[in-house]
Amino acid sequence: MIQSMTGFGQAIQTNEGYRLQVELKSVNHRFLEMNIRLPREWIRLEDVLKQKIRSVVHRGKVDVFVNIYRETLVDQKVILDWSLAEAYFNAAQQLRAKFGLPDTFSIQDLLHIPDLITLSDQPDEANPAIQDSLLACTENALRELLFMRDAEGKHLHADLMLRLQVLKSLHQSMQVLAPKVVEQYKIKLQTRIQEMLEGKPLDEYRILQEAAIYADRSNIDEELTRLDSHFQQFTRLLVHEDPSGRKLDFLLQEMNREVNTIGSKANHTDLLNDVVEMKAELEKMREQVQNIQ
Question: For residue 270, what is the enclosing H or E element?
Fold first, then answer.
């Protein structure tokens, strides 16, 4: 069954005092494009996550948002930037010596220095349990994403099947009208010649010859046969397990090409009306196909 490229998946998991959250958002795109936002400490896992996503998602623009933070402050690390503290202290000593200032530099002054002391609430990047939890959380989010893409794919399948039935109905109408094109032309040709001859005898052989030439030029049997073949291929691809969005788009282009040829060949009002209706349906179908994986 076809699958949409639009979807959302989210998963939350806790492990060893850490809370892991993964969000996946996907929209239509010509190829597969992934944008993964990980905490800086986990950048090295970006390729692993890409491989996991690529194994089940084949087309679309996928944005991945990963958050990892502590649920409690137990064992939270306090990090002191000693080089920064020393630099501030030395600067303060130089200012005191140059301008003769009193020595009032205190611990409180150091504690007000920006970024001197930081609290680390990030998990230990070497902890394999946290890594496994992150991958499991990603799998759960992927499962939700695929469920939504499958559900959307069913709606697209139903809509495209209805529109395909409209195309088949118009195709049948064209098949009925095609033989009438030549007959209509023959009658028009006889009428015009009679008007020109003003009652003189008609050359039936000449009329048949002209009608045969026109019939050959206006014959749309090949185009109708190819359209029927395209309809059958399109139906098969709608239930195919592999990604088929590009193939469906190509088939719609080929259908549109055949319909344009029919429109240029057939000088018949009802047949041209069918051509216009079919082109309108094809355009709507192509808009829908743009979102199929």
Answer: helix 269-289
**Degrees, nearest 5: CA angle 203-206-208:** 110
What is the end-to-end Cα distance of the chain in Å, rounded? 11
Q: What are phi and psi of 60, to 5 degrees?
A: 120, 165
Residue 276 corresponds to which tokens in the numbers above? 């216009």
Q: pLDDT digits over 131-152, tens only?
A: 888 899 999 999 999 999 999 9
Residues in contact with 6: Cβ distance below 8 Å, sequence separation at least 6, in sequence order: 26, 27, 28, 60, 148, 149, 152, 291
Contact of 201 with 226, CB cutoff 8 Å: no
Residues near 115 by beta carbon (within 8 Å), at least 6 away in sequence: 81, 84
Q: Which residues contact 292 (CB under 8 A, 6 or more apart)?
A: 2, 3, 4, 5, 153, 156, 244, 245, 248
- Phi, psi at 80, each rounded to 5°: -110, 130
User: What is the number of alpha carbons within 13 Å of residue 108 lying toward its C-beta?
Assistant: 1
Whether residue 267 has pLDDT greater than 80: no
Q: Are strands 18-27 and 117-120 parallel, antiparallel or unpaired?
A: unpaired
Q: Of the candidates 188, 171, 157, which has an alpha carbon nearest to the alpha carbon of residue 279?
A: 171
84-97: per-residue pLDDT in tens?
A: 888 888 888 888 88
When computed from its CA atoms, the radius of gyration of the chain, rounded to whole angstroms, is 36
Average pLDDT over residues 242-259: 94
Assign 3-class secondary structure to 79-105.
EECHHHHHHHHHHHHHHHHHHCCCCCC
